[in-house]
Here is the input.
Amino acid sequence: MATHAVEAVDLVKTYPAGRKNPPLRALDGLTVSVGEGVVLGLLGPNGAGKSTTVKILTTLSRADSGSALVAGYDVNRAPDQVRRSIGYVPQKSSSDPMATGLENLVLSGRIFGLSRQESLQRARELLERFGLGEHGSRPVKTYSGGMQRKLDVALGLVHRPKVLFLDEPTTGLDPEARADLWNEVVRMSGQEGLTVLLTTHYLEEADRLAGQLAIVDHGRIVAEGTPEALKASLRGDSVHVELVDPDIDGSVRVLLGQLAGIDEIVVEGNTLRARVDRGATAVPAVLGALEDMAIPVVAVTVSRPSLDDVYLQHTGRSFRVAEEAA
Amino acid sequence: MIAHTGLIFGRWTRASYRQPALIAFTLVQPAIWLLLFGQLFQGVVDIPGFGDSSYIAFLTPGIVMMTALMTSGWSGTSFVQDMERGVMDRMLASPVSRGGLMAGQLLSNATTTLIQTILVFAIGIAAGARYDGGSIGYLVTVVASMLVGTAFGSLSNAVALLTRQQEALIGISQFVSLPLTFMSSIMIDPAVAPHWVNVAARYNPVDWATIAARQALAADPDWSSVSRHCLYLLAFTLIVGWLSTRAFRTYQRSV
Here is the structure.
C-alpha cells in the first residue's frame, strides 16, 4: 500500500463561539490516511469530529491548520481537482425532493461535465444498480428513507470518483436497507477499486464494512488498524456482569479486583466489565465471589473482545456511554 | 459558469412549475394589491400637485416593482431548504461554479418576475390604465422589474446563506421591503409626499426602477432620466449579485 488516496496530517478545526455555544475544538490534531482501494471506517460517537473531518477532506470546510491530500491533490491549494476526484454523500439526504431520481442524477452528471447523453446513460445504470430502476421518474419526495439514501450514494458515484466519502450512510435505515447498502459498498471497493472513507457510530457497521478502522475521540484518532488486529491487540476475554442494583459504593469493584487474573474493571450503572486471562476459569470465580457477598446478579457473559472493548480500552468509556454523553 | 447557470436555472424552473399552487399565489397577490390600492387611493389624483390624472395608470408600474421586490424577498427560502437537506453541501463539494449556482437560481426568480409583470399590466390595462409610450416603454419596465427581482433575490439568497434560518430570512426580508415600498413613488407622486420621503427615495433602488418605468411609458419620456436610473439599478444589481456569491464562502467557513 505505497500510495494513499487520502492523507490528512494534524488537522485542527475550532468553531467560533456562538450566542449559545462556547468555542468548540472539533478536531485536535487528527491524522489519518487511507490506502487506495481500502474502505476506512471512522468510528466514534456523535461529536467526536468525524463529520468535520469529512467536510475538510471534501473541501466543503477548511481546517485552521494541518494539511490534507485527497487523490493526490491538496484540499487547500487545488480544491477544484479534489472536487472532481471525489464523491460526497453528506449526513443529511442530498437529493432535490422536487426533482425525480433520474433528474437528480442527470443534473449531477452534467455539473461534473458529462454530456446529456452520457449523464442519462450513467443515471439509468445507477438507478438499476441500486434497485431504483422503476422509480427513476418519480419525484424524490415520494421515496422512502432507504430509497433516498440509496439515491444519495448513487449521486456520489455519477462521475466515477476515485474516493467516495460516506457520512453516516446508514443512520436511520431499517436493517434490510442497511444490509443492501453494505453489500453495495463492499462490491464497489472490491470490484472497482474505489477508495471509501465512511463515518459511522455503529460498531457493527464498522466491523462488517471497514477493512481499516480509525477510532475517533475528542477530535483525535486514538486507535487504528484492521478490526481484527484491534480486537487481537486486547489479550484474554471480556466478562460482562449485569447486576440487579448499581454498584454505588464501589464495593463490587473492590471485591472483584481482589480476584486473580481479572483487571481493567469498568463499572457503568448496573453493568460491570472486566478483562480476564481466561473466561472459562474467571466466570466461576466471579460468580462465587458475588454469591459469597450475597450480591444479586442478572447475568454474566463471556466473550472474545469486541470493538466495544477496543473502544473502551482506548477511551476509558464504553461506546454507549460516549453516545449518551454526546 | 454559463453551462452551470443553465443547469441550475433548469432545476429551479422545473421545481416551480411543479408547484402550481405557489405560482397561482404569486400571481393572485399582485392582482389583489393593484385592485385594492387602486380603489383605496383613487382620490389622491385630486390632491393639487399630483401629476397624473389616472391613478390606476400611475399605480400599475409601481405595483410591478413592489411585486418584484416582495416576491424576491422569498427567493432565499429555496437556499435554506437546500441547506436543511444536504443538497447545498453536496453542491459546494462539487466543481459547480459558485456564480452559476447563484445566477441560475436568480434567473429562474427573474422569470417569475417577468410573468408577474405581464400579468399586472394586463390587469392594469383591463382596469383602464393607458400609456402613451410605445413598446420600448414596456420593455424598459420589464427589464427594470427583472433587475429589481434579481437584486433583491440575491440579497435574500445572501441573507439565507448567512443566517441559514427560514424565520430570520423572512423577518429580515419583511423588515426591509415595507420601508422600501413606502419610501418611494410607488403609490404617491413625490410632489405631494413629505420632503424627507423624497430624499430617502433618491437612494431607493425600487424607486429608481419605478421612475425609469413611468418615464419610459410617458408620452414624451425624459430618456436621460430613464437611462440614468436604469444604470444605477444595473450597477446595484451587479454589486449585490457579486456580494451574495461571496456569501458562499462565509457559509463554507461556518459548516
